[in-house]
Each structure stands twice: as structure tokens, then as C-alpha cells.
Amino acid sequence: MIDQVLKFIAKQMDGYLQVQQGKSTLILPGSPPYVILGNVSQIGTADSNNLNNHVIVSLINVEEDRISRPVNNYVKVNQQTGPRVVYKNPPVFLNLLVLFTAYYTDYSSSLQLLSSVVRFFQYKNVFNSVNAPDLPQKVDEIIFDLTTLSYQDLNNLWGVMGSKYLPSVVYKLRLIIISEDFAEGSAALLKEIIVNDKSIVGL
Predict the structure, then answer these.
(1) Tell me: the pLDDT tens digits for 153-178?
(2) Which of 41, 79, 90, 170 is deepest in the core (most CB within 10 A)?
(3) What residues does 172 pair with on adjacent strands?
């Protein structure tokens, strides 16, 4: 699910940059795709050649959104034999911190591309089935929020990745819902409870 979402965003941004190059003074080295999904920590290693002259989309953190998580571990379903209760753990709601790095040999091009990344999300920071019908399956909506890191956070981030700072920006992507279709079990819907010969109507 996470890989599909990030590939989707990379494709959307790449299409935007191609359109911008066609109608502006933005000149991008090489040929499409200009935006790729990659591990920015590989920059400076023997495996970094395929990252050169690209905007790199990298996942840097995953956090659970506990506020959005439902508390019930069951759902009611209607079947031919009647309503039943299906027991399954509630879905996990995730926020992703995504780093967009403009890795170009020419520093001016890197800054131009970084500005284009920000413009892209200013133009379109919400993706849903209406404005993006090719969303990955089981994804209803994706919202992007610009995240500002402190100097200390930036130092820690690039230190962990073992690289020097490059023109980049961080966005929080929410909400990704991960849910396994398998159920732990099911039972008929409770209709009546009898206590001391008195009937209590169930749900």
C-alpha cells in the first residue's frame, strides 16, 4: 500500500513537471521521468547513479494516527442468512513523512525543481476519487501538509541518512488506511437476552 501511494504521487508530480517544462522557462536535464521513488540515503554511494538529476521521493518516517482509529473490533454485515457480527481488528491509520529532494548537478536547477515541488502541492494538496480517479485501490483520500523541520531536526535527519544537506522539503501525507480483509470470526447478531424470565431486546 505505501509503495503504491508513493509511486502514484511520483507519477502525478512527474506529469506536472513535464507540463511546466513545456510552457515555461524550466529546463530539466535528461528525459522523463523527472520524479522517481528512491532511497535518498544512497546518494554518494556506488548505487547513486540512477538518482542523479531527479527529484527523489523518499519515505523518512511512519506514524500512527490514533485519533482516527475506531475503538470497536467488530463490524455488522448483512448476509443472506441475516445480519451478523464480524470480529476483526480495526484498521490502522497512518501518516507518512515524505522527503522530496531535488538532486541535480546544477545547483540552480535543484532550486528551480524544489520550487516546482512546492508549487505542485500548492496547486493540488488533496487527492481523491474525484480529482484523481487513478488512486491506488482502497485509498479514499490523500492529504499533503507542508512540514517545517527545525535546524536540529534537519541535522539529525541528514546525519541518519549519512549525507550532506540537499535542497529538499518534507510533507506529511495523511491518511493511509491499512486493513487486512481476514476476520477473526463471526457470530449471529444478538437479538434478545432473557434474564430472570425478562426479555431484553438486543441490538
Answers:
(1) 999 999 988 888 999 999 999 866 65
(2) 170
(3) 97, 145
